[in-house]
C-alpha cells in the first residue's frame, strides 16, 4: 500500500486516496473551437510512461482536496506531492522537472 | 502410546507436560513444545499423507514452513476444520484432531494410488494434451472429472466461528525473523531507543539457535546468549516481540503484513481472537528470514522417512526425537555433517554419503570420521528402497563425469538429505528488490534494494553464525541510523556445498521418479520433458509442469528445478532467471485477511430517520447503495404485486406517503454558485428565480448522462441540489473535481447535506389537504405555490424547505425537514392523513408510478453511454450556453450519427405479458442467428392504473419506429410489442398542476 503525502494532511495510506489520472491537462478554454480530433485528444488520450508521471490525486477519505504528485511508475516512489497550481518544491523533483515529460510538453 | 522414538534426554520440550491429540482417530502422545510432526515422529509415524497427483505415500520432509508433503486437516472443534496445515508448524496440544488427506478409503490403502502406476500417462502437460477433444466432452466429462480430482484437502462447510483481529502499527525498524541475525539486528536497533517490532513465525524466538546445541557465542553457550538477548529485548518498552507471527507480504512503501496466530496452540482459547493481521508501516525493515535446505533429486526420494538433513538435526536436538534409529545422511555439502555428528551424539547409527570427493571436503570429514561413523565420499544416491517407509538407500561411487561404480545397499529407517541451501529471498523479492546470482553459494541473493530494507544472515547468503550475528547487528544499527558496529565470536559453522541438480545415476534418468516438487508431484523427467517440448522460459516451465506452483511456492524445489532447466539448456542459472515471488510467503487464513469485517461490519448500513417507523409498519426493505429503503408495505396476505397494485392506486386516487430521505443533497453556496451550476449542468441557472425548482441533468465530459435531480434556488447565492440515492458521492466528487482543479477562481462551497435533511414525499390528489393544517408561513394555494416551486416555512413548528415537486405525476410535495425532527413530522402527517386514507408506499411503487409517466431513472434507463437526446431530454439543454461539462462531446460524430438507441415505450400485444427488464429486442424474429439486436428493455412493470403491462426500452432509431411492431425475447419465446411514446398515464400532465 502506497504511503502518500497529502500536501494538506501529511502521510496517509493509499486507501484514503483516489487517483485521478494524468495531471496538468487543462480543460480547453473554448471546447467549441476544437476539432473532433483535438477534443478526442483532450478527452481520451493519456500518457502511460515507464518512469516519472505527473498524476492528480484526491484525498477523498481525508480532507477531500485534490493535489498533484510526481510518481515513478516503475518503483512507485513519490518524488513530490504539491498543491493544485503549485510546482514541485523538492530539490529532487526539480531535477526531474528539467527532464520534461510528455505531459509537460503538452500542458 | 509410549513414544518409542523419543530420546531419553534433550530437546526444548517440557517432559512434565504431556499432550494428547489424535491422528486419523488414533491417540498420539507428545510433550508440550512438540510440533504435530515431532510428536508423530516420536511415535514412529512417518506415513502422514498421499501426494497430490500420484497419491504416493508421503511423510514429513522438513521441520519448518517449507514443508511440502505433510499436509493435515486440523480439527479444533465444531466448525473449526482447516485443511492443508503443515504438520511441521502446527503445535501439538491437547484435544487437537488431525487427519491425513488425499486418499480413499484410507491412508494405508488408497485406491488413487493407481495413478502412480499410470504415471507414464500423467506426464508434464497431461491436462493440456489430454482434455482437448472432442469439444463437447469438456462440460460433461472433463471438467467434472478434473474438478473432482483437483485440490488438496476439504474446504470447511460451515461459517468460521472464530474471531479475527486487525491492527495497524508503525515502527522505526521492523525485523523479520528472530534467528541469530534477526535477534542481533533487533538488539542493535532497540539500543538506540527506536521503536522496534520483531516478528518470528515460530512459537519460540531463536531460529537455528534452538537446535544448534553445541554452538558458542562470545565464549558462552548460544542458549545463554539467546536468553540474555531475549531478556534485554523484553525489558525495553519500545520493542514489540511477536512470536507465531509470519511476515507474509511486503508491499509498497514499507507496508508489511504480518499474520499473528494467537490461540491455535491453546487448548482453551477463551475469548481471544484466533489470529491478528498486523499491517505494519515501517521506516526501515531488516529481513532475516533464514534459508531453506534443498532436497537431493534421486529415484524415490519422496519415501516417508526421507527428511532434510537439517530437519533430522532439529527433530533430534530441539524436540528430542529420533526420526530413525539407523540414519543415512546423503549430502553434497558440509552442513549435513553437523546433523550427522548430533545424531551420532544422540546414540543413533549414522552413515554419511557425500557426493563430494575427499579433497572437496573441509574439516567436517575428519570430525565425523573421528566418531567412528562410516563416511562414503564420492558417492551418489541411485535410489531409495521401501514404499510406505524408507528401508534402504542404494548408493554407488561416482566420478566427476557421472560414471557410477558398483551399487551398495545401505539399510536404514531414515535418510537425511542435503543438496545445499537457498536464502529465503521471498520478502526481498516481494519488495521489488533485484536478485543477484552468487556463484559461490549457487543461489540468488538480495541485490539492489528498491525499498528501505536490508537483508542479513542466511537470507542474504551468510551461513556462518558469527557472520549472521555481525551482519544482523550492523543491519539493525544502520536501520536505526546508528554507527555502532559489533564483532561477535562464535564457534565455526560447517558451510559450503557442491551444487547438484539431479544425482548421477546408472539407470536411464527418463525412467526414474526423482521428485523435484514434492507438493505438486513434479519429477526431474517432467521438467526435462517440458524443456524438450520447447518450454525454455522458466515462467513457462513452471506453468506447464506446475513446479513451484503449490501452496509451498517451491521453497524446497525452485533451485533444483531451475538448475535442471539451466542444465538442459546449457545455460547459467542467471541466464534462465527466476520466477516471481508473490505474497503470501506461507498460506494465510481468509479469516485473518477479512478480520472483523464480517456480517454487520462487512459494509456500513445506512438507514433513514423513518426506518424504524417503516419496520413497525411491516415494510420489506431493499438495498440501494448502502441504504436500506422501504420496498413495499404488504398488508397481511399480500404479495409484492398485490401490495404494489394497492399502493399505486392509493397514490393516484388519494394520497401516499414515501420516505425519500436517501436522495443525495448538496448545498451549493457562494457568490459564483449560479455560474458554477451553469457550467456543471446542461440546464440554464442564471435566471432561475429564488423559490423555483428545476429538473437538472448533468453529464460527464464525454457527453453521457451522469446524474439527475431537482434543484431549488434558496437564495441568489444558494442552491439546494438533489441527486439520485446512489449517485450522491459521485456527484459531489465530480463537482469538487471541477471546482478545485478547473475553476479554482469560482467562489463556491459544496456541502453534502444528505444526512441533514430528511425528505417526506406526499403524493396524490389529496396531498395538499393533508398538510394544509400542519404548515405555517406558506400559502399552499396552486396560484401562490405552483408545481416546481420551493417555499420555506414551518411544518408542525419545524423549519422546512417545502418542495412542490412530483416523481409520480400527481400533485405532490417533498417535505424537507431536519433529520432529527423527521420522525415526529412524519407521524404528524400520517395522523393528519388518516381521514384521507393515507397509504405508505415503497420504492417498488415509486418505480411503477414514475414509469407510468415515462420518467427515467439513472442507471436503469441510462448506462453510461446514453446522451440527453437518447432519452428525449435534449430540450433541457440551454442553447445559449457556450459551454458546460459535456457540451462539446454532444457534437462528436458518434453522438450525432443516426442509429443511436433512443428511449421509447413498449406495449405488448398481450396486455398481461410483463417483459423482462434487460430482454433483447429484434425486428424480425425469423432472421438467422446471430440476430441483429436493436436494443433492450430498461424498465417493465404491471401498471395497475393503466390496467396493463408497460415497458420502457432503448431501441436503435426508436423514435422513428413509433407505432411499429418489434419482438422481445421472453423465456417462452418472442413477444410482439408496439413502439409507443414512453408516457403511459396522463399524457397531457394535467394532474401534476392540480
From TrEMBL, chain A:
One GO term in the molecular function aspect is: sarcosine oxidase activity
Q: Where is the composition biased (Polar residues)?
A: 87-107
Q: Where is this region: Disordered?
A: 84-107
Instruction: Tell me the Gene Ontology biological-process terms attached to this UniProt entry.
Output: tetrahydrofolate metabolic process
Known Pfam families for this protein? SoxD
Determine the domain of life of the protein's source. Answer: Bacteria
Q: Which NCBIfam families match?
A: soxD (TIGR01374)
Protein name, please? Sarcosine oxidase subunit delta
Q: Which organism is it from?
A: Methylobacterium aquaticum
Q: What broad taxonomic lineage does this protein's source fall under?
A: Bacteria, Pseudomonadati, Pseudomonadota, Alphaproteobacteria, Hyphomicrobiales
Automatic annotation (TrEMBL), chain B:
What family does the Swiss-Prot or TrEMBL record give for this protein?
A: Belongs to the GcvT family.
Q: Start and end of every SoxA A3 domain?
A: 512-593
Gene3D superfamilies, alphabetized:
2Fe-2S iron-sulphur cluster binding domain, sarcosine oxidase, alpha subunit, N-terminal domain, BFD-like [2Fe-2S]-binding domain, FAD/NAD(P)-binding domain, Probable tRNA modification gtpase trme, domain 1
Its organism's taxonomic lineage begins at: Bacteria, Pseudomonadati, Pseudomonadota, Alphaproteobacteria, Hyphomicrobiales
Domain Aminomethyltransferase C-terminal intervals: 901-986
Keywords, in A-Z order: Oxidoreductase
Named from the GO MF annotations, one term is:
sarcosine oxidase activity
Domain GCVT N-terminal span(s) in chain numbering: 610-881
Does this entry carry the keyword Oxidoreductase? yes
Q: Does the keyword Isomerase apply?
A: no
What organism is this sequence from? Methylobacterium aquaticum
Tell me the Pfam families matching this sequence. Answer: Fer2_4, GCV_T, GCV_T_C, Pyr_redox_2, SO_alpha_A3
Q: What is this protein called?
A: Sarcosine oxidase subunit alpha
* Domain of life (superkingdom): Bacteria
Q: Where is the FAD/NAD(P)-binding domain?
A: 172-433
PANTHER family the UniProt entry points to: AMINOMETHYLTRANSFERASE (PTHR43757), AMINOMETHYLTRANSFERASE, MITOCHONDRIAL (PTHR43757:SF2)
